[in-house]
Amino acid sequence: MKSTINSLNYLSTARFQGAEAGDFLQNQLSADIAALKPGEASFACYCSPKGKVLGLLLVCRRTDDFLVAAAADLLPRILERLSIFVMRTRVEFSAQSGLHVLGAGISSEPVAEESFQPGGLPLQYVFSDRDAAGHGTAFKNEELRLGVTWLNAETTEKFIPQMLGYDRIGAVSFSKGCYPGQEIVARARYLGKVKRAPVIVQVDEETSAAPSDSVEICRDEAWSRGTIIDSVAGENGGTLLVIVAPLEPESPVTGLKHNERLYRCATT
To answer: I need a surface site. Which of 37, 47, 103, 209 has the fewest CB within 10 A?
Structure first.
């Protein structure tokens, strides 16, 4: 069965090239970019010196360069910030406005365009000079259920990687060398100071709740406050939300309050 390819217009692409492009990305990002072989990909975090995630990146290694995808509204500021640290490093990078990011599920037939599967997840990211007609709602549903969330201008630089679950999708290496925020990210891991984590919630109906909104969720008849970091229309109706909330209790979410309205929901 052939994969269905959909447009992921919430992502944009940049190209990194030069003799030291890999070293530059290795020194700036949280994943072990040096371990990637041509044709391989990994998610990675770009963090502030305080360990807060500025954006999630998809880093794809090719033979002579790297393709990097990020949230469309964050990529320009990420590239601008990275440019400060180039100095004498032999690397060049720029946005690729003519290169589209598409999404495809894993199937028995590979897609024709250049594609990458990060971290063994059942997701294919395709880079093509042609956009796809289909919308990426089904693909984004799968992303969120697998823990892949994309920050935006409202949620950037508010959470460390573990609060977003990015360590679970291979976006953080705890054995590589230094990168911005590395000491704080590592300390949170080894001292057990991470008290919040992403919770995936299926709301039974459509809701106006959006990323960066503050909500309350009910677990074990107790209410706690959380922040929405990503959302998409549910495949079977309703809304799928990813909310950063307290780790405990770990019971299923049965209700959500947003703007004084109560919704029924279930943890997926």
So the answer is: 37
